[in-house]
Amino acid sequence: MGMVRGKNDKVDAVRIARYGFEKRDRLVAEGPVDKSLERLQMLYSTRDRLVRSRAGILRAVKELRDACGLKKDDLIIRAQLQLIKDFDHQITRLEQDIAKVLDSEKALKQNAELLQSVTAVGKVVALATIIKTHNFTKFTNSRKFACHSGTAPFENSSGSSIRGKTRVSKLADQDMKRLLDLAAKSAIQHDKELREYYQRRLAEGKSKMSTINIVRNKILHRMFAVIKRQTPFIKDYLQSV
């Protein structure tokens, strides 16, 4: 668009229309969002906000008791503990509604169960992945979703003078990246294959963070694989055949 000076709604609309026209051979229009997925998105977002608020109050209670010496029967503590109970109740209700929506749609329920067959992929990770991939219709492979989630490494070089390390981009779905990070750390603890891979890489002097990122991507690959095959993940597959 060249040099841009000033802005208003009319000028912005023209710029957006011009950009869309120039990229018309590459842009693909998305269809309407499935009502069940839309409902899951709202439930998931609401649950996430309540979980974060609950965690904040828990931290505050701990600080008040440890640093200020307030007792459990102090009004300040009791008021916040009551809030935590209320949050627990509402979070449980949201999770029950999420389960009802999944049960009402065979394709959603089946994919949620398949995802949870992958070691370290629990209900929250499975639900978030289904929502963010539009039940695996928006992203065709794990590499594209890794790019969306901020776990795909990108080259950092220019000519012969700049040879930087490959890095993940900050332009990513930070919520999904956080969930994959938790899943990767859990997998390192509970999945024999990934734990041995992680330990072997560290023994070779590889970076801890880059190794965890590889584990994230291995989990993503497994998730997309079970959905593509429509069969559960088989732990220690080579030993079972």
Can you walk through the features of this model?
With 241 residues, the protein is mainly α. The chain folds into 2 domains: 35-104; 106-154 and 170-235. 67% of the residues lie in helices and 5% in strands. It contains 10 helices and 2 strands. A two-stranded antiparallel ribbon has the order 1-2. It is globular and about 65 Å long. The model has no long low-confidence stretch (mean pLDDT 90).
Write the layout of secondary structure elements.
Blueprint: H1 9-22, H2 35-67, H3 75-104, H4 106-116, H5 123-132, H6 142-149, E1 153-158, E2 162-168, H7 174-190, H8 192-203, H9 208-229, H10 237-240
Antiparallel strand pairs: 1-2
Keywords:
single chain; 241 residues; 10 helices
Structural class: mainly alpha
- The residue ranges in which pLDDT falls below 50 over 5 or more consecutive positions are none
Number of strands: 2
Number of helices, where a helix is a run of at least 4 consecutive DSSP H or I residues: 10
Q: Could you tell me the mean pLDDT?
A: 90
Quick take:
The chain is mainly alpha-helical and 241 residues long. Helix content is 67%, strand content 5%.
